[in-house]
């Protein structure tokens, strides 16, 4: 299987290569096969990309939002027309099953271009402020050159979630995908040009943690939007702060999902499974601490085990497969080591915990794993594992579970399953998280803001809120009379 792109980077409307950059091997996680060889951006490539973005941006910003939006909506249409091809590429890039990518990856990217293309004409208006004779007005102005840096779990979606609002608002973007998943973003760049995006406005360069700082520290960059881990977020935010650049930080989590004893059990189990096993557990907002009220604990665990053991693990290109491999060997090793820590710290392994027999070989598969009797101080209950490992904790009552759910430095997401609506809203009100779900989990349609609080980050993606993060407010005061000065 090969997925070699025309070149490593996409700059100023075309593919560009510079073989002087370090080699990045794209590995298909299901087989371990090298499917493409690319090169990390050299400083010259970084300069070229930022210069192209800087040159193209003013003319784009001067276009009407309707005209910009029309191009983005066309890109959404092209993505939908090519959904299968893009989904297969996403599966090759990440190892995620085609059953998922076909409904969740390019489609959510297309939603983003459609949504921001559609609202650009209405959502960038300013205010008129009457001042009794004098008046003022405000304008939302683009920031200029924005940098997007992506994680490897949703490469196409991240490339679109950052690109769509940035472009709709009149900015140019230089996007760097994760070194683990370099392929998808190049296709997005290609499609945008095909849709009519003027060259230089959406550039993709490859690279790893040593390339990122070249972008973040560049004096012509006005904003950085990062999707990644908390430690990386701290580094990137600190570097951006040195030049007071705008930042959006979409970072990690250890989110609580609370199941009260009056909840619909099958729905709660379904929510917990989706919130731990979708994308082989590699989802930032996963509800990895599942708090189950004691009265229903045994019934919950019994059905959870049954349903988890029925998950179909296998070839990601087979439409029947529900769980693919992890993105890389390093990530799988990290998850396996957390599983060992869970066992040694006394958690009860309910199911999973190892490598499935029938899919051995070079594929980086791992069993969906559930630990029961997990307590708050265990490592697996405190640290982000970023794999298909669910921790089930017990609780007695509402005040206790809210306090325990909030006892973490993370604050990305949270969920509550209950039939008592007043309780659902009361608990949602008290949980410290950027995105909460009641009787649902992990749904992030483009219409609603998505992002974290506490160390899970700041700024929001999706919704009108994202446009605000790619613009700044300019206020114009208009004096209508003579200036009266006391001197
Ligand atoms: P990571 O932090 O290792 O890397 C993220 C990106 O940052 C990569 O492109 C990497 O090359 C780049 N990078 C690393 N160091 C850098 C530096 N010093 N300067 C600039 N760029 C740098 O994260 P990952 O392992 O790719 O992804 C997994 C993490 O991402 C998890 O913690 C997960 O929770 C988080 N995540 C968050 C969201 C969200 O929306 N909140 C979504 C997906 C993933």
Automatic annotation (TrEMBL):
Organism superkingdom: Bacteria
Protein residues bound to K(+) 2: 244, 454, 457
SUPFAM superfamilies assigned to the protein according to its UniProt record, in alphabetical order: ALDH-like
Major enzyme class: oxidoreductase
Cofactor info, note text: Binds 2 potassium ions per subunit.
GO molecular function: betaine-aldehyde dehydrogenase (NAD+) activity; metal ion binding
Matching Pfam families: Aldedh
Binding site for K(+) 1: 26-27, 93
Pathway(s) it belongs to: Amine and polyamine biosynthesis; betaine biosynthesis via choline pathway; betaine from betaine aldehyde: step 1/1
Keywords: Metal-binding, NAD, NADP, Oxidation, Oxidoreductase, Potassium
EC numbers for this chain: 1.2.1.8
Quaternary context: Dimer of dimers.
NCBIfam families associated with the record: BADH, PRK13252.1
Family: Belongs to the aldehyde dehydrogenase family.
PANTHER family according to UniProt: ALDEHYDE DEHYDROGENASE-RELATED (PTHR11699)
HAMAP family on file: BADH
Function: Involved in the biosynthesis of the osmoprotectant glycine betaine. Catalyzes the irreversible oxidation of betaine aldehyde to the corresponding acid.
Official protein name in the record: Betaine aldehyde dehydrogenase
Organism: Sinorhizobium glycinis
